[in-house]
Design a protein that fits this description.
heterodimer; A: 77 residues; mainly alpha; F1FO ATP Synthase; 0% strand; B: 285 residues; 3-stranded antiparallel β-sheet; two-stranded antiparallel sheet; 5 strands; globular
């Protein structure tokens, strides 16, 4: 396996494995938010706002993985 | 082909449709004025700027005490955003509304403009192949990095303004060191790293979502043709909207976090928080 192939493989693995954790996190957050909304529909607006924030902070982890894979693809020689 | 030939002769704008390919990660330079190089993403941002100015002119041209349909709709939108900023920004939410709404509208116009068909299809002949004349401004990392740096500077300006020089004790915790608590001093380093991580996450979140949307559209177009793009296009539009919203919201929240009163002041302010929480359901019902 030459260096370029390893680079491509690493880029794919970085974002792929990084997205797993973020996906689990986003699923947890929105699932719990749906539970909360179905229990207390009058709090829908507040819960939605907190849910969006939670999703954003989970997504941040995937973005770090994406940064690594973009560096591997475009910057690393 | 005739158009391509003419374009080659003039070196000018060539409106024709080549095979679809994903945009490169770097924006292409279009023209140079002195030391300033204009890239195609800058041209896209300029176009969005002009459109935004026209929109503002259109909406504020005939203001009336008794609003017409357009004015009523815009007022309702602005009022809703204002209430949202006030609700999520805490005590400084109302003061930060212009920043929040400004970021939101600017990013929204930029993101939506790039999704209009034909925006990226105007091609220019360059030294190595043709490239689009306009590019989504947020699909260029320089643009989102500039916005994130602006938010970063604003966060710490507000922090220093509200807490004075003691604000830096959160990052270089000399008082804790003098009191003999080295753990707190080390924690300060992690706070510092966390602050710089805000730049990375803010700028890359926006850039990656917009650039990823462009790549997604190009790949789906190449794989399945224009009909399939309708389904993915919807998702890309939703993502572009949400990301514009989130960028503004995060700027608002980061700044309102450093604008909160300090801990000992917060203990006194706590009954007020409970009071507002208690009155809120009453206003809703």
């Amino acid at each position: 396996m030459d260096a370029h192939a390893a680079q491509l493989l690493g880029a794919g693995l970085a974002i792929g494995l990084g997205a797993v954790g973020a996906g689990i996190g986003i699923g947890n957050v929105s699932g719990k938010a749906v539970e909360g909304i179905s229990r207390q529909p009058e709090l829908k607006n507040d819960l939605q706002q907190v849910m969006i924030l939670g999703i954003v902070f989970c997504e941040t982890v995937a973005i770090y993985a994406l940064v690594v894979s973009l560096i591997l693809l475009f910057v690393a020689k | 082909m005739i158009l391509g030939l003419a374009g080659n002769l003039m070196g000018g704008i060539v409106p024709f449709f080549p095979e679809i390919k994903a945009p490169p990660i770097k924006a292409e330079p279009v023209l140079q004025v002195g030391p300033v190089v204009f890239t195609n993403s800058m041209l896209g941002a300029l176009l969005a700027f002009v459109i935004l100015l026209l929109l503002i002119r259109l909406m504020t041209r005939r203001l009336d005490e008794r609003p017409g349909k357009l004015q009523a709709a815009v007022e309702m939108l602005v009022g809703g955003l204002y209430n949202f900023a006030k609700g999520s920004g805490g005590s400084t939410g109302a003061a930060l509304f212009p920043l929040f709404a400004g970021l939101l509208v600017w990013l929204l116009v930029n993101n939506w403009l790039a999704l209009i068909p034909g925006f990226g299809q105007i091609l220019v002949n360059g030294p190595d192949g043709s490239f689009p004349l306009f590019r989504a401004a947020n699909a260029d990392f320089n643009n989102t990095l500039a916005l994130a740096l602006m938010v970063f500077v604003l966060i710490h300006t507000f922090g220093v303004r509200n807490h004075g020089i003691a604000y830096f004790a959160e990052f270089v915790n000399i008082p804790a060191l003098l009191k003999g608590q080295p753990i707190d001093f080390v924690v300060g380093f992690f706070h510092t790293i966390g602050e710089f991580a805000k730049i990375i996450s803010l700028s890359f979140r926006l850039f990656a979502n917009i650039y990823g949307g462009e790549i997604l559209i190009a790949v789906i177009l190449g794989l399945a043709g224009p009909i399939a793009v309708i389904f993915y296009g919807l998702e890309v539009v939703i993502v572009a909207t949400i990301q514009a919203f989130i960028f503004g919201l995060l700027a608002l929240i980061y700044i309102s976090l450093v604008s909160e009163p300090t801990e000992h002041a917060g203990a006194h302010a706590e009954p007020a928080v409970h009071a507002t929480a208690a009155t809120e359901p009453a206003t809703n019902s």
